[in-house]
Structure formats: structure tokens, C-alpha cells
């Protein structure tokens, strides 16, 4: 079995070496798709035997799908892993033992994903472990065309492994809040797209048969997105922190649930309202408002195009 791990990077010198080391037991090739890092990311990648390609960033989906096109044709399986993530030894052993024996009809493998916040593993709030499709047959999967919260999608049957990967980011809280401010702008684009339809609707949302990711996306797009802005952020935080016992995660967990479960989602709603105000004030379209208010470039180019940048064939 020829396995290639794909890692997207931008200034990931703090995490990349640890990420690649966690793959060592898989005997996997590593492709680092970099967005012109200014630190030691490329040096670290090459020190660990990774192949490096570079491309200017548009969004995660287009970058990842472009990286897939750079893989060798004899690749059997692709592993998607972020630079700040590591595979647990249990998951490495499971992939080694079970992936080669999967039948040819199996397109993808779901694994559990957990997250730390300020070095504390988040155990409560009903958030983790989340099942994510991270291992898939080359040529049978791609990243859905979204600006935020992207998932790998495949057409055929999938299986689930018991092993997990851990998102263990070592950056500061200042870095985290700055990143989530950018994430909030990107998620606002997806919410506005649900309303205005200026880009192709590419989603894994399924009420039945789509696994945990499909069900969560269905709830997000068809229930959460239709609730009043602001109120839905508070309701979600109350569900996580009180009903699902998020307060048991201690001081670090409280910070996580408040910031990620309420502040971030309220910020998304506030950005959506800001775009709408700009549209009303300037009598302009949603794409122009997004690019002016949220300072996200490339939305107009993505409108009417597929996740890989090709024409989506809408007519």
C-alpha cells in the first residue's frame, strides 16, 4: 500500500516536525503544500524527507485539492493531516494493520479527532471526539468547496477506525483569537452563500447516511443557520457549557467553550450583519460587500467555479 500524507503549511516550524514524526510508523510519503512560509517550515519539511510544493493561498479547499493533483499516480491512499495535528500510536498501528486489507469498494476511513486548548485535552461539552474522514483512496475523494469547516467527501462506502488524531496547537491565545477572527470571516461567507447562492453549494450535509460529519453539517445548515443571529450563538454555548457539562473542563476548558462556543459564533453573526448593512447602504451585491467588508479576496473568482478552480458547469 502506497500512502501519502498531505500537509498544508504557512509558517509551521513549531509543529511540522512533530506532525511528520507521528507518521513514521506508517512508512508514508509526505507532501507539504506550502504557502510561501517565511520561517524554517521548508527546511524542516526537507529534513524529514517530505516533498515540498508551493502555491499562493486562496482557501483551504482549493489548496488541498490542488495538492492532490501533485501526487504520484501510483498513490493508493491519501491521509489528510494538519501541521498542528499528530496521529496517536494506536491510530498508526490500526492504519498499518487494517488499511491494506480494506476491500476495493471502500473509499474512505473515518477516525476520531480530539483537541487540546492551552495544553489541556477537552473532554466535555459534547464536542470531541468528532469523527472525521481523513484517509481516502486516491482519486476517489476531494475537499468540499467551502471557505470554512471543510470536509473530505467520497462517493463510495466508508469504514471507521477506533484510533484518534490529536489537534495540539502550541501557539499563544493571541494567535488563536487572531486566527479565529479570520475563520469568522470565512464562515460568514459560507452562511451568506446559503442565503444568496453566489457559489456552488458543495456540502457533506446528510440527515441519514452521512455519518457524524454529515449529520452535524445538516443541523448547521438547515437548523442552526435559520435561527436568529446572536441568539443561536448563546443557545449553542448554553448547550455545550451547561447541558453537556463543559464547565468540567476547568479554567482552560471554560476559556475554550466561551471563546470557541460563544465568542467565535457571535462574531460570525456580527460579521454577517455587517455585510448586510453594507449591501443596504451601498446598494451592492453580496460578493462586492464581502470583499469590501470582510477583506476576503477571491470570492468573485470562486463564484461559479469548482473547488479545484475549474468551471462548475452551472447553467
TrEMBL record:
Keywords: Transferase. This is Glycosyl transferase. GO terms for molecular function: transferase activity. It comes from the Bacteria. It comes from Thiohalocapsa halophila. Belongs to the glycosyltransferase 2 family. WaaE/KdtX subfamily. Coiled coil: none annotated. Residues 5-125 form the Glycosyltransferase 2-like domain. InterPro entries: Glyco_trans_2-like, Nucleotide-diphossugar_trans.
